[in-house]
Amino acid sequence: MTLDHLKPGQGGTITVVGGQGALRRRLLDMGLTPKTKVLVRKVAPMGDPIELFLRGYVLTIRAEDAAKIEIEEVVQ
Amino acid sequence: MSYLLALAGNQNCGKTTLFNALTGSNQHVGNFPGVTVEKKEGPIKHYKDAVLVDLPGIYSLSPYTSEEVVTRDFLVQEHPDAIINIVDATNLERNLYLTLQLMELNIPMILALNMMDEVRASGNSIHVKKLSDALGIPVIPISAAKGEGISDLLDVVIKTVKEKKPTQKLDFCQGEVHRAIHSIAHIIEDHADAAGFPTRFAATKLVEGDEPMFKALKLDTSDIHIIDHIVEQMEEDLGTDREAALADMRYTYIEGLCAQCVVKHQETREQLRSEKIDRLLTHKYLGIPIFLLIMVIIFWLTFSVIGAPLQDLLSAWIDSFTAGLERVLTVAEVTPWLTSLIINGVCAGVGSVLSFLPIIVLLFFFLSLLEDSGYMARVAFVMDKLLRKIGLSGRSFVPMLIGFGCSVPAIMATRTLSSDRDRKMTIVLTPFMSCSAKLPIYGMITAAFFPNHGALVMTSLYVTGIIVAILSGLLLKKTIFQGSSVPFVMELPAYRLPDAKSVLLHMWEKAKDFLHKAFTIIFIASIVIWFLQSFDWRLNMVADSANSILASIGSIIAPIFTPLGFNDWRASTALITGFTAKESVVSTLTILTGAANDAELGVLLPQMFSPLSAFSFLTFTILYMPCVAAFAASKRELGSMKEALLTAGYQTLVAYIVAMVFYQVGSLIL
Question: Is A74 part of the contact surface with chain B (CB cutoff 8 Å)?
Answer without folding.
Answer: no
